[in-house]
Specification:
By secondary structure, this protein is of the alpha+beta class. It has 4 domains: 192 residues, Rossmann fold, CATH 3.40.50.300; 83 residues, Elongation Factor Tu (Ef-tu), domain 3 (Beta Barrel); 85 residues, Alpha-Beta Plaits (2-Layer Sandwich), CATH 3.30.70.240; 73 residues, OB fold (Dihydrolipoamide Acetyltransferase, E2P) (Beta Barrel), CATH 2.40.50. The strands form 6 sheets. Strands 19, 20, 21, 22, 23, 29, 31, 33, 34, 35 and 36 form an 11-stranded mixed beta sheet that branches. The chain is globular. The termini are far apart.
Length: 605
Amino acid sequence: MYHPSKIRNVAIIAHIDHGKTTLVDSLLKQAHIFRDNEKIQERAMDSNDQERERGITIFAKQTCIYFDDFKINIIDTPGHADFSGEVERILGMVNSVLLLVDAQEGPMPQTRFVLMKSLRMGLKPIVIINKVDRPHADPDRVLNETFDLFSELGATDEQLDFAFCYASGLSGFAKKNLEDPHVDMRPLLELIVDKVPAPSGDPAEPFLMQVTTVGFDDYVGRLVCGRVLQGSITKGQQLLHITASEQKKSNVTRIQGALGLEMVEMEKAGVGDIVTIAGFPQATIGDTLCDPTNPVLLPPITLDAPTVSVDISVNNSPFVGRSGQHITMNKIRDRLEKEKRSNISLGITMDSGDQDKITVAGRGELHLAVLIEQMRREGYEFSISKPKVITREEVGTVMEPMERVHVEVPEEYSGSIIEQLSKRKGEMQSLETTPEGITRMVFVIPMRGLIGYRNEFLTMTRGLGVLTSIFEGYAPWKGNIGGKNRGALISGCPGAASAYALWNLQDRGTMFIAPGDNVYEGMVVGEHSRENDLIVNPIKGKQLTNVRAAGSDENITLTPPIKLTLEQAIDYIRDDEYVEITPDTIRLRKKLLTENDRKRQDRKK
C-alpha cells in the first residue's frame, strides 16, 4: 500500500478526438505494464463495443501506472458533451486534470465545458498541447487561445499560472519546450509528479469513501468504485452503508484496484487509492461507505439535469418478435430500472397513468442512442418516439434549453448554413474565415432547432462540414420552428419489396428499402420529394404476358437505398412516426392508434 504522498490522481479531459485515449496508450506502453510479447490494440482503454465502433470514449475508465516510486491513477473520460455526466462524477475523485488541446484545432466546445467544471471545483489543470508533430500544428497560437479560455471562464490567478507541455500521443513523446528532442513520455510524468497535489486525508482516521461509479460482476454481484478519502480498508472489514434514508452494515468481500488494463485483487487499500469494492448489493452512486464507529453522510453527487427525452413503448408492428427475445413492457421496464440504478445522468420516468410508455431523458440524442443501441444488442425489441426537449417554467415564462453551436465549413457553404440556422432561431455570435478558405461560425440556437438538422447539414456541406454543440443554458421559448419539409413514402400493403416497384417509385423520392426487404402496411419505406405523405405499393410486380414487344424488357437500374443509422433514424422521424428497434433491423413506421389513444379521441369528441 502506497503512502498518500506517493499517489497522484488525475483525469484526462478534452474535446472529442483530441487524442486522450491514444495518449493513455503511450503512457501504458512506456510504463512497461504489458509483457514484451503481448499484443496491444489501439485505444486499449476503449473496451466497450460501441466505443470501438464509434471511435469515441463513452464510459470513464481507470488505469494505474508506476513511475519511479510514485503510483499514478489515470482516468480516461469521455470527450463528447452528451456524456458529460461521466466527467462531472469523475472530477470529484481526482486532484488535478490533464487538459488535452489539439495543436491545430485549439480549444473546442467540449474543452470549454470540461475546463469550466474543473475550474469551479478548484482544480488546477495541466495543459497538454497534443499532436504537435502534425504538419499544420500551431502550438504557440493554441497555447495563447487556451490561456484566453482560462481567463474567459474566470480562472483564479493560481489557475491561470498553469503548467503545460507539448506532446504527441500517437508518436509517444512529450517535451517541456518545442526545441527539445522527441524522446519519450517522461517529461509529462515528471510534470504530473511535480504539479499534481497528493491526496488529502489522514490514514489514521476511520475509513470514509463516496461511491462514484457502480458495476456488476456475475460472481460477487454489485461493485462500487470511489476514492478512499480517509483511513484504510481491508478485505473482510465491516463497513456502514449510509444513504439519505437508511443505514446498513455489510462486510467487504473483495477489494480491486487497476493495473494497466486489468483489475487486480488487493488485500488492503488506503487514502488516495481508487478502489472497487464488493459486498454492498444496494449501494448506488452518491452513497457513503464509512467505519461503523464514525458514521458520516457525505453531500450527494449532483449533476446537470437532462435536456431531451424520448418515449419508449412496446413494438406493436406486424413484425414484432421476429428477432427480439425481450418484447414485453415488463421486460423493458426491468431493464430500464436496472439502468436507472447505475446511470444517474439518465432520467427514467414511468408514468403510473400511462402504462404503455416509459420516458427516458438524457443530455442529447447520442446519450440516448447509446442506451438504445445497448438494449438492442441485448435482444430487446421496442419503439421510440421523436425526441422532445425538456422545458421548465421560471416566473411564469416557459424556458427552453439552448445550445452553443460551433460550425466549420468551406467558405462556399457558409451562406446557406447561416440561412438555415437563422430559420431555426439561431443567433450568430461570431464569424471568421481563415486564409485556407474555412469559415468558422458560432451560433446560440434552441436545442429543438438542432433535432433532425445534423443529417441535413452533412448533405448540404457534402460531408465537409463540422458541427459541434454544447449545452449553453435556458432561455425564453423562441416560438415555432419549422420542421421537415419532406413527406414520407408509406407502404399500403404487406409483402416483399420488388425491384420493379422500387424502380417506378424512385422518381417519387428516396428509398429506405431494397428489393426483397419485407414491408408491412404503415411502414415508412422512403422519403417523398414533396411535403405530403404518399401511400405507395412497394411490392407491385411487373405484369407478365406471353407477348413480347419492343421496349418491354427495359433494364431496371436502382439507386442504392439509404440505410439509416440509429441516430439518423431518431433525427429523421416526425411527431406521428416511430422508430422500430429490433436486434437486426431499424425501421420507421407511422403511429398506430392504441386502444388508449382511441378512448382519448372518443372523450375529446
